[in-house]
Each structure stands twice: as structure tokens, then as C-alpha cells.
Amino acid sequence: xxxxxxxxxxxxxxxxxxxxxxxxxxxxxxxxxxxxxxxxxxxxxxxxxxxxxxxxxxxxxxxxxxxxxxxxxxxxxxxxxxxxxxxxxxxxxxxxxxxxxxxxxxxxxxxxxxxxxxxxxxxxxxxxxxxxxxxxxxxxxxxxxxxxxxxxxxxxxxxxxxxxxxxxxxxxxxxxxxxxxxxxxxxxxxxxxxxxxxxxxxxxxxxxxxxxxxxxxxxxxxxxxxxxxxxxxxxxxxxxxxxxxxxxxxxxxxxxxxxxxxxxxxxxxxxxxxxxxxxxx
Length: 281
Hints:
Helix content: 10-25%
Structural class: alpha+beta
Radius of gyration: 21 Å
Distance between the termini: 26 Å
CATH topology of the domain at 5-141: Gyrase A, domain 2
Order of helices and strands: EEHEHEEEHHHEEEEEE
CATH superfamily of the domain at 5-141: Probable tRNA modification gtpase trme, domain 1
Shape: globular
Largest sheet: 6 strands, antiparallel, barrel
Strand order of the largest sheet: 7-10-9-8-11-12
Number of strands: 12
CATH architecture of the domain at 5-141: 2-Layer Sandwich
């Protein structure tokens, strides 16, 4: 359905951050499957905003404002107040770099961005605004799956390399815990093995692969590209693709069909690049 992050405030209060484009679909899904569960769901999408500060200097910058935030472990959060503004600050992000994501009221987002970027024009600030294209190259270098590319409603998390987030045997030793939607199907995949798996590809030349392009071995189609770009860090084309499970070994030679031109590609380990910062989890 989506790739989300769940914030747990206490045993009875949770916050789910989803992709904005999936919001209405998810609301309809929750309404359809809630059964006799009694809970209150509040859609805060339009009343909140998120600002992400990412990069090797992010925690140094944040540390000038708070001594507590730099001590957070990955995927942990804290609630803070800045004058009259309430913030949720988490050590998360979708770049592969260290950093934080800040959730605040949408009415204060412009002022918060102004605070972050106030010294940019003077050249005295290490902070620079970036768009989705830059974010996308960063998450590809970090080998991070993105909904609509590496994951969707027809892709299982085990094939996408997200098995760490799935407890396939949930409830097997305690019926009170219960099972989750799709668990039976995932149990079968875990037992039988994935037909295709997500891998990294390094391409020859300078042209980037695009989503949907065929991956071949000889004349046989053995997979499809999910994401691709010209990596700014490595100055060469990289891509992620689902390929037949017997072809995932690093160093396997394949080809990508770039609109009628076969270009050599080699299976590479994911992530392509690991952030320098070492952060406890």
C-alpha cells in the first residue's frame, strides 16, 4: 500500500507519515479493514508540514539549537517546543545521510524554512535547498526503495529487500498477538523463495536507465529497471532493478535495453554508497 513511518507516543496514540499521493487510498483502506476496532483517525496532512535537514553536517547544525536531538538514535524522535511552536523531530530521512525530519504546523512552515535558509544568500551557511530530483539521486545511491518504483501493491517486501521490517511468523507462538494482512502470502514466498529480487546495477557509458526498461541476459528478458540516474558521487550511471533470483550475485553481467540500444550492466551491491557518519540504531 505504501512505505510509512509510525511514531509511537504511547500505547494508545500513534502518528503515521505516508506519501502524500497515497493519502486518500490509505484512508479508504483503513475504513475498509477496521472491522470492529474502535479508534479515532485524524487526517493532519493539510494542517502539518515536514522539513528535512540532511547531510554530514546536519547534526552539528541541529546541535547548536538542541543538545538532546543529536543524541537520538536512528528512527527515534522527540517532541520539542520552539517559542510557541510545537515540533516533532526525528532522526530519519530518505537520503541515506544522517539528519532529521521536523514535523510542525503548516502555518509555521514558511517561517521555519526562513530560519534554516536565512544565511544562504550570504554564502555563510552550509545549508542549501534541494528538490525531489536531488533527493532521488541520494536515495538511489543509498539503495533505498521508493513507493511507485521499487515497491507497489504488486511487489512483496521480501523481494524488495525489506525483509528486516517483516515478522513473517508473527503470532505463531501467541495467538493473542494476531496475524497481519498478507501474512499467508509472505509465508509462502519465504518458504518457496522469491522469483525476482532487487539489485543494484552499474551501467556502461553515460546514459541513464529509466523505470520499466528491460534487463536482459542475451536475448532473454530477466528483469526490469525500477530507478536509474547518473550518480553525482560516482559520475556514472547506476540503477536498481528486479532480476531473476538466480542472477543476483554481485558481478553478474547483464544488459539494459535503453530504447533499442543494449548497454552492458553489472550487478553491484546495495547500497551503492554508505553514509560516512556512524549512527547507533
